[in-house]
Amino acid sequence: xxxxxxxxxxxxxxLVKLQExxxxxxxxxxxxxxxxxxVGIVASLAFEAFQFFQKIPVSEFLFGLEWSPQTAIRDDQxxxxxxxxxxxxxxxTLMISTIAMAxxxxxxxxxxxxxxxxxxxxxxxxxKPMLELLAGIPTVxxxxxxxxxxxxLIRSTGSGIGFEISSESALAAGLVMGIxxxxxxxxxxxxxxxxxxxxxxxxxxxxxxxxxxxxKNVILPAANAGIIGSLLLAASRAIGETMIVVMAAGLSxxxxxxxxxxxxxxxxxxxxxxxxxQEFDSAKTLAAFxxxxxxxxxxxxxxxxxxxxxxRYKTIYA
Amino acid sequence: xxxxxIMKIQKETAEPANxxxxxxxxxxxxxxxxxxxDQQAINNVSFEIPENxxxxxxxxxxxxxxxxxxxxxxxxxxxxxxxxTGDIRFAGQNIYDPKxxxxxxxxxxxxxxxxxxxxxxxxxxxxxxxxxxxGLASSKDHLEEIVISSLKRAGLYxxxxxxxxESGTGLSGGQQQRLCIARxxxxxxxxxxxxxxxxxxxxxxxxxxxxxxxSMKQNYTIVIVTHSMQQAARISQKTAFFHLGDLVEFGDxxxxxxxxxxxxxxxxxxxxxx
Amino acid sequence: MPDYTLTTSENLQRRxxxxxxxxxxxxxxxxxxxxxxVLMFFSISTRxxxxxGQTHIQLEIHFDxxxxxxxxxxxxxxxxxxxxxxxxxxxxxxxxxxxxxxRAQRSLYRLLSSGAVxxxxxxxxxxxxxxxxxxxxxxxxxxxxxxFMKGKVDVSLEEKLRRLKNNEIAWINQLKxxxxxxKKFNTAFFTKGDSREPELSGxxxxxxxSFLSLLVCFSIAFPVGVLTxxxxxxxxxxxxxxxxxxxxINNLAAVPSIVFGLLxxxxxxxxxxxxxxxPLVGGLVLALMTLPTIxxxxxxxxxxxxxxxxxAALGLGASKVxxxxxxxxxxxxxGMLTGTILGMAGALGETAPLLMIGMVAFIxxxxxxxxxxxxxxxxxxxxxxxxxxxxxxxxxxxxxxVLLAFLVLMNxxxxxxxxxxxxxx
Lengths: 318, 274, 425
Known about the structure:
The complex is a heterotrimer. Chain A has helices at about 5-55, 60-65, 85-120, 120-135, 140-160, 170-195, 200-205, 210-240, 245-250, 265-275, 285-315; strands at about 65-70, 85. By secondary structure, chain A is mainly alpha-helical. Chain A has a two-stranded antiparallel sheet with strand order 1-2. The model of chain A has no long low-confidence stretch (mean pLDDT about 85). In chain B, a hairpin with a 2-residue loop joins strand 9 (about 240-245) and strand 10 (about 245-250). In chain B, the strands form two sheets. A six-stranded mixed β-sheet of chain B has the order 6-7-8-3-9-10, with helices on both faces. A four-stranded antiparallel β-sheet of chain B has the order 2-1-4-5. Chain C folds into two domains: about 55-185, no CATH class; about 205-420, MetI-like fold. Chain C is about 65% helix and about 5% strand. Chain C is built from 18 helices and three strands. Chain C has a three-stranded antiparallel β-sheet. In chain C, helix 10 (about 205-235) runs parallel beside helix 13 (about 280-305), helix 10 packs across helix 17 (about 375-385) and helix 13 (about 280-305) crosses helix 15 (about 320-350). Chain C starts with 9 loop residues before the first helix and ends with a helix. At the A-C interface, helix 1, helix 3, helix 4, helix 5 and helix 6 of A face helix 1, helix 10, helix 11, helix 12 and helix 13 of C.
């Protein structure tokens, strides 16, 4: 006896349904990966940093003005207990990032304005991919460029006008990092500027405003939030950038406001503490994780704020 | 040739009083062609728009009525592939003459767009924008005076008097469009071009704006593009009917709607093409 | 009387001047940005071009049986391990019979790269029949000679301050006259691993290391990324959970890369005890880094598939899963692949996280698998950039040129894929 066709359909239907359930669950598990990575980062950093803070108090780490991570090799050694104050590193990081943003913000923003408001489509088609090429260059290449070309250039110009500039200077690292950030800022701002509705431009031009008046008085204020968001993202990238500073900024941890001196950054210290011979439990290696935790939290705050701002901006003109 | 025409313009601008506007109209188009790349959007169009009247441009969508409207204040300049030939004159001056400053032109010939597009600024700043960039106000008080009188002329002042500092984007659609009209008026233009200003508004808001146009026409020349024949019939004194880039018929509104000469016009008005 | 003036006024001229200034600032910003690009390419390629040529010296080498294979076994392994220094020395003395003192003879030998003997050993090991014969061979010159031939030695400097002495320069000039010294294409650069000697170092090991890492990276990040995107775009309802994933992905895309390196160090090496300095761990870390990029690109690609297609499939009675995997995913594939290739290009250039998991070691051997110790192209660049030897400067630049060539190729491929396969809806 053959079962009725409808029954057959229902039975296979059940099987298919089960299969599909499994597929959907598998998909869901995959999407958990993103969360797992974040959890992994936080857990591993926090775990090692916790061990670090058992040796060095948190307050000393956050507010200490001195950084010299040399710990005693033998217990009876004198004067080598190590100083783990993050402020000199933070100072160096902020100085280099500030220089970088000071270079990249005007260049990136004006490039974006020129490309979105003035450039002919034919120019745009050529210039945009060229700028994107600049964005695709690995940071190690920028670092090499900084150490090989920019730093000697700054040094010789400096000695030409009577300034003593060390071969590794915050200025060289900051300048090159700024170049790296130009395409980042220009492409994000370009997206933001293009999202401002065309009707807004027409309204202003129709009233007899020139293009620059339109940009300054209408488009930029309208794109304000989005641009601030993209600048914050760029700043976050500057703070976390590693290779350029490793190759061009130097290792001397001092609190200074002079951009011609060598400074060190959080990322540079992480690299120096963790490359080469290392024992896993010493305060020296654990310190790297504490710095990384600090760095992660700092950049995450910047990221979340900027993502929120950009998100809200997008919904205005969606 | 070119020199001669420039000199003529200069002479005319020196003595605008000598112009006989009544005979030629404040705006005139002679043999105008417009191309978008290889595509011809306007074929050899000639007509004249009288001062202090409302002229309606009607026709099915894609007929070129908006294109010709945007020629009058050279908004088409902002489109790279758009090319305009022929002779378009404002008060006797060829507006495509190299001597003409497009910024000055747009200050004389304002524009209101299809979709209300207030700037994301306060109501006050929206209206103050034009006077500011053109340097029309001599003082802060003067600027305020211009803003308030413009809002009054646009029939919006009563509704927004107590919230001038609130964002212009928070107003209703009809209010936004009247804000855009106030913004255009604030620059003190002679002509206001309106590109389907009521197409996204409800009938009540539309009625208010139509009433406003009626009251504005003693001070301004209004050219309005509309897809609504009823609207053209209600408010305009002259009507131009466009079809596929041609100006099919131009004349007194009453004559066009009651006694059209061309069969194409007849067909459109009776709803057979559109 | 209304004002009909259309010509420009003083006020308008001022505004137009401001307009022109503004436009010029914009143009200048673009030109300056592109100028940096040009300067960087120029300074790197002028320095790097030299590394593609390598100075060689022609010698008449006699593979002396008595010295190399006294037992006449012709055993390849034995031959590969024999001492070739004497026969090279002999060839040099024949070429310069006037050199007599031990010291001078030693510096004569230094004209050749210390790797020349290994080349001979390899040749004899592969072809034992060479023993007993005499061959005219081009052997690599030392880095100093190479720099001199490339015009990078300042001969005006006092002899004491130079590594290349006057008598050595005289010999080189003699060789030049005899046409027994010349630059040849530097095959070693592409066929060898790292070395302490600039003239013997190559990028093959680093390239293979990068390739293996990217392989691991791709095979993890692509499936996980695409499936995540499918779930979020096609199945997940908007809940607080998906919001959380969403924020996570966007945030991960902006986490400093070095933090991923620390994650790899403490989890993959510290907890799972995976082998240090290997492409396996490197690839895993890079996979975690590229995951957000791929997810974001794949979601955008899925979003660009019009809903009408899904509705058509659902209307025919296909299930949600079938609709997704039979229609939406294949149609979105070009976009997903484009995004993935761009993500891979980013991973190829990544350096900092690899330093953290020990791929920064000095490794001579070319890796054979994902669990062999290895380095990667950008890390190799970092290592060479750090080394004090002058000969490495041009090699660093050359390695950068190779890296950039790969990146440009990947980008072009992505563009090609997008043009070729992406449907215009």
